[in-house]
Amino acid sequence: MDGLKTVPPVQFSCGRTPTKGEATRERILEVARISVLSKGFGATSIEEVIAEAGITKSGFFYHFRDKSELAREMLRRYVAENDRIFDEIFGRGRELADDPLQAFLIGLKLLSELTRDLPGVHPGCVIASICYQERLFDREVHRLNASSVSSWNRRFLGYLEDIAAVHPPQEPVDLKDLANMLSCTFDGAIIMSKVLGDPTHLERQILGYRTFVKLLFSPPQQDRAT
Questions:
Q1: How many structural domains is the chain composed of?
Q2: How crowded is the C-beta side of 160, counted as CA atoms within 13 Å?
Q3: Domain range holding 40?
Q4: Domain CATH code at residue 99
Q5: Considering only CA atoms, which of 185, 160, 169, 155 is closest in space to residue 101?
Q6: CA 219, 220, 225 angle in degrees (round to 5)?
Q7: What are phi and psi of 132, to 5 degrees?
Q8: Whole-number mean pLDDT of the chain?
Q9: Contact 56, 125 (CB under 8 A)
Q10: Which of 82, 194, 223, 66 is closest to 145 using CA atoms?
Q11: pTM, to two decimals
Q12: Distance of alpha carbon 41 from its chain centroid, rounded?
């Protein structure tokens, strides 16, 4: 779920300006992210990252011990960016609606609008890139990857459990599966958008999931009329 909108990758306290070292580190991570999403981790060399970031080799190794450490920090940065986006959009939903179903629906609508505002096809998913080339990464990267996906699934499950406590689902459904479906929908739509060269798939699939959730937890029309 990378690159949904322009969000500063690091939040510095009291609005302070990042130091030169912090800015360099962020530039290295952003260059690496773009390269990994465009051609994979295996084809991304340290030399290429150094050249694109406009730094020296010693400058790179000042910030990262090796390529494995770069991968770990790139993944942590990616997860932090997405967590911040989810906090913002679903937090906004809770601000606008007291009802948990309406709050979640608003959040999904905001998420779909973020994808619509992308300048082109979604650049891809770091989590998926790591899965596709899993042999290139160490155990810590795999652990971080799995814990990140599990954390997002738990987040979505929490929203759905709050909804179900107020609006029992109209059909039997495993809420864990429904939570996982959002991640699957998002990453599947990214692949479809890239393969077909049509960026609208991502927005439409999120809205499709939103419609499904709305129908699942909304009472039948005759119940609402009584």
A1: 1
A2: 23
A3: 13-220
A4: 1.10.357.10
A5: 160
A6: 95
A7: -70, -25
A8: 85
A9: no
A10: 82
A11: 0.81
A12: 18
Alpha carbon 133 to chain centroid, angstroms: 19
Question: CB neighbours (10 Å) of residue 226?
Answer: 5
Residue 7 in any domain: the answer is: no
C-alpha to C-alpha distance for 26 and 35, rounded to whole angstroms = 14
Segment 153-171, tens digit of pLDDT: 999 999 999 999 999 999 9
Query: Is residue 61 assigned to a domain?
Result: yes
* Amino acid occupying residue 134: E
Angle, helix 200-217 to helix 175-196, in steps of 10 degrees: 160
User: Nearest CA to 216 among 110, 111, 104?
Assistant: 104
**Residue 6 domain flag:** no
pLDDT: is 204 or 139 the higher one?
204
SS3 (DSSP) at 83: helix
- Spatial neighbors of 134 by CB under 8 A, at least 6 apart, are 142
Among 84-98, 131-145, 151-165, the range scoring the smallest mean pLDDT is 131-145
Residue 175 placed within a domain: yes
Backbone conformation region of residue 3, classed left if phi is above 0, alpha if psi is from -120 to 50, else beta? left
Q: Is 220 in a helix, a strand, or coil?
A: coil
